[in-house]
Specification:
This protein has about 550 residues and is α+β, with helices and mostly antiparallel strands. About 50% of the residues lie in helices and about 10% in strands. The longest helix is centred in the last third of the chain and has 25 residues, at about 455-480.
């Protein structure tokens, strides 16, 4: 792609984009590692024996050696998943293989405990169901047609799936399920090598036929099979790649990156609901900017969130960034910095705030106008952007509440800028709060994040102005319970005073009294009644 630097290339690592760097490498040999029972010596790479387990609070650093990851994983599994080992014995007693697979194995190497445990087994679904019925407090059919049965024992939730080999229809996302006979065969169909590792139970034998542990240690995303075949089989894996880049700070192998770029259009056959699920996980990740940059570079964004790459063609009006796209990513970073802890006003990670940060300027390309003297304007881009946001989020099948919240923030993100230019009346402050409603705290953060100027004096001035606005909001709230402003007469009182029934006239009267309340502050019932009757007489004249 001429004119653009791969954010996961060596060139990027040399200064263009220091966040990411891909490391081309030959496929590593499988690591023949065996973990024996919990009370015996473990044979690890380098003939390390008698080791001291790494506490789970001491997460392995990036580019940790495989031996360090192994120690961390065994500590997690031994301390936090004894039920998994017991379940393995239960399957073995019934004559079947069982292995912990996928995400829980990967997370164990990273020092994290998975809430749910995924297993693969040689047992067929009916046999699995019978075993889980004896083992668990409850069990359920999670997708028996795909070979998956779920169960719960205490606080432990498990999913057990029969070994599979899948055949895909090139026009469909859904695989044709064919049961397999071997664990290696099952692992070969998985998305990435870091998810194609397993731990045989109950004997604790680590299985890594595709070098996933080495890739995890180097933070590299590769596919077990050729990436073209993998993505042709299941195009959603391309979205999973960008999601893992954002979640786990992983770099995409150059061959995988090339396949994603060439095959981005295959995403069109994937359902919007499944794409949205991956997009949400990306936005909630520790580094969503990383994933979004990958989406734009590979062309995936053209099929999922086309409004984002379109911002690259639009120079911002203040010439602070090379394009609105870079400004948008900076706003996202700054909005995340303003998220609070779990007891704060906007606990992070906050999906609505992060989505609003990315969408807040998407109306600019459509409203861009060249002004006399060479300037550029984007009049009403917040209004256009809010409509575009609603349309895109509906297309991605977001729920109504999330869509409305994000669209409201996009529509209101410029409202504050009038405050810095002229003093607002108390009425204007009240209306700002009322219009923001339950999104006020997010609007505070989005507005602050939207200041990306390099001019320190200007940034300080804007920050001071918003401090002043927040202080005025707090002062008025103490006086008037600002967040719950209502007219001084409700609908029933309006109908009683005017002697009318339900209808449009009641709504018009209510809005008139609300406007008075915003302009003048609280009124007594007598004052409100007088104002209502005066309005009614003028309306009837």
């Amino acid at each position: 792609m001429p004119g653009r630097v791969d954010p996961h290339s060596r060139e990027a690592a040399d200064g263009v984009n220091p966040r990411c760097a891909a490391v081309p490498r030959a496929a590593p040999a499988a690591l023949p590692i065996r973990w024996a029972a919990a009370d015996s010596v473990r044979d690890l790479p380098g003939n390390v024996a008698g080791w001291t387990a790494v506490p789970t609070s001491d997460r392995p650093a990036e580019n940790a050696e495989p031996v360090e990851l192994l120690r961390t994983a065994l500590e997690v599994i031994a301390e936090h998943s004894p039920q998994a080992i017991e379940l393995g014995r239960t399957f073995a007693d019934a004559g079947h293989e069982l292995a912990l697979v996928g995400g829980p194995v990967r997370d164990a190497f990273l020092g994290r405990v998975s809430a749910d445990l995924d297993f693969a087994t040689s047992a067929r679904p009916d046999e699995t169901e019978q075993i889980l019925a004896r083992w668990g407090d409850a069990h359920w059919d999670m997708g028996k047609e795909f070979g998956t049965i779920g169960a719960r024992r205490g606080d432990v939730v498990v999913e057990v799936t029969t070994y599979r080999t899948e055949a895909y229809d090139a026009t469909s996302r859904k695989p044709e399920v064919v049961y397999g006979d071997t664990l290696d065969g099952d692992l070969s169909r998985r998305d990435f090598t870091v998810n194609a590792m397993a731990l045989r139970l109950p004997e604790l034998v680590f299985v890594d036929p595709f070098g996933g542990l080495s890739d995890l240690a180097e933070r590299i995303l590769r596919t077990p099979a050729a990436p073209e075949q993998s993505f042709d089989d299941d195009p959603l894996r391309m979205m999973r790649a960008v999601r893992f880049a954002a979640q786990l700070a992983m770099d995409v192998h150059p061959g995988v990156l090339a396949a994603m770029t060439a095959m981005a259009g295959r995403l069109d056959i994937v359902s919007a609901e499944r794409v949205q699920a991956e997009l949400v996980k990306l936005f909630l990740a520790p580094a969503p900017r990383r994933g979004l940059e990958l989406m734009v570079y590979t062309g995936l964004a053209d099929h999922v969130l086309p409004e984002l790459p379109a911002l690259q063609l639009t120079i911002d009006e203040h010439h602070r960034h090379k394009d609105v796209y870079e400004h948008t990513l900076t706003v996202l970073d700054q909005a995340m910095d303003l998220e609070t802890g779990p007891d704060g006003a906007v606990p992070g990670p906050d999906l609505v705030l992060r989505l609003a940060a990315v969408m807040h300027d998407i109306g600019k390309p459509a409203t861009r106008r060249m002004e006399p003297g060479g300037g550029v304007s984007f009049h009403h881009h917040e209004v256009v952007g809010a409509k575009m946001t609603t349309k895109r989020m509906k297309a991605l099948r977001f729920d109504k509440a999330t869509t409305q919240a994000v669209s409201k923030l996009v529509a209101l993100h410029l409202r504050f800028h009038g405050y810095g230019e002229a003093s607002w009346t108390d009425s204007a402050v009240r209306r700002y709060v009322t219009d923001a409603g339950d999104q006020l705290e997010r609007l505070h953060r989005l507005t602050r994040a939207d200041c990306t100027t390099r001019n320190r004096r200007k940034a300080a001035r804007l920050s001071h102005a918003y401090d002043d606005l927040e202080n005025r909001i707090a002062a008025l709230a103490e006086q008037e319970e600002l967040g719950r402003i209502r007219p001084d007469l409700d609908g029933n009182a309006i109908m009683e005073i005017l002697g009318i029934g339900p209808g449009r006239e009641v709504g018009a009267a209510y809005q008139h009294l609300l406007a008075l309340r915003m302009e003048q502050g609280p009124m007594s019932r007598e004052q409100a009644t007088t104002e209502l009757l005066t309005w009614w007489e003028n309306r009837q004249a």
